[in-house]
Amino acid sequence: MKFSTLCLLALPSFSAAFSVLPAASRTAPATALRETIVSPFDNEGSADTTTTTLPDMADKGPLELTWDNVELVLDDMRPYLIQDGGNVVIAEIDGPVVYLELQGACGTCPSSTQTLKMGLERGLKERIPEIQEVVQSLPEGPPLDEEQINIVLDGVRPFLQVAGGSIEIHKIEGVDGLQPTIWLDMQGSSKSLNSVKLEIAQRLQRHFMMAGLHVEWKE
């Protein structure tokens, strides 16, 4: 292993993130709601990957759409989020639309949309047919500007510099749009490491908590 790569992989936050790949395997038999949720924090393909099966709730009658009933259904599913370091709370109920906030590890996980749609939404609709859609509610984060981006990058730069690299902001696009994009310019031997790019992108997404935020790289 080259020295530059070793320096980056020696970092706890980097090395931990490099081994994480989101899992997208879920099954739903037609006769009953039994979602198999593969933890997004398990290593894909590893021998010790574990799956969790949601409780069979099809034999319970439908519930009215109320705050308390949504909480009741979520209570059945929370243990499987908590065991992965996350949680879920109701942010708002607007007519037939329920807004949920994923917290902890679930809120910043790249598979959060799958967790919401394939697990929570299906579970809620099964018990509460009035629900038309479940939407992820994101807490308001800091403004998307160069100052805030550099706060995140400053936490990475020392390790890139040890490996003879650097990272700078190239441009910011679509700040007020549906898909804001941060373009970064990374130089040095780390430029070719997708695992490093993934870790930096996830740090930015955790910092801004902004739906649709993309991180792109200048070639």
Q: What is the overall shape?
A: elongated
Counting DSSP H or I runs of 4 or more residues, the number of helices is: 8
Percentage of residues in helical conformation: 25-40%
Instruction: Report the sheet-strand fraction.
Output: 15-25%
- What's the overall average pLDDT, rounded? 75
Question: Helices, strands, pairings?
Answer:
Layout: H1 3-9, H2 12-18, E1 36-38, E2 51-53, H3 67-82, E3 86-94, E4 97-104, H4 105-108, H5 112-127, E5 133-136, H6 146-154, H7 157-162, E6 166-173, E7 181-187, H8 194-208, E8 214-217
Parallel strand pairs: 4-5, 7-8
Antiparallel strand pairs: 1-2, 3-4, 6-7
Brief characterization of the structure:
The protein has 8 helices and 8 strands.
Give a verbal description of the structure.
There is one protein chain. This protein is α/β, with parallel strands linked by helices. 37% of the residues lie in helices and 21% in strands. The protein has eight helices and eight strands, in the order ααββαββααβααββαβ. α3 packs across α5.
Task: Kindly list the characteristics that best describe this protein.
single chain, 219 residues, alpha/beta, 8 helices, 8 strands, 37% helix, disordered N terminus
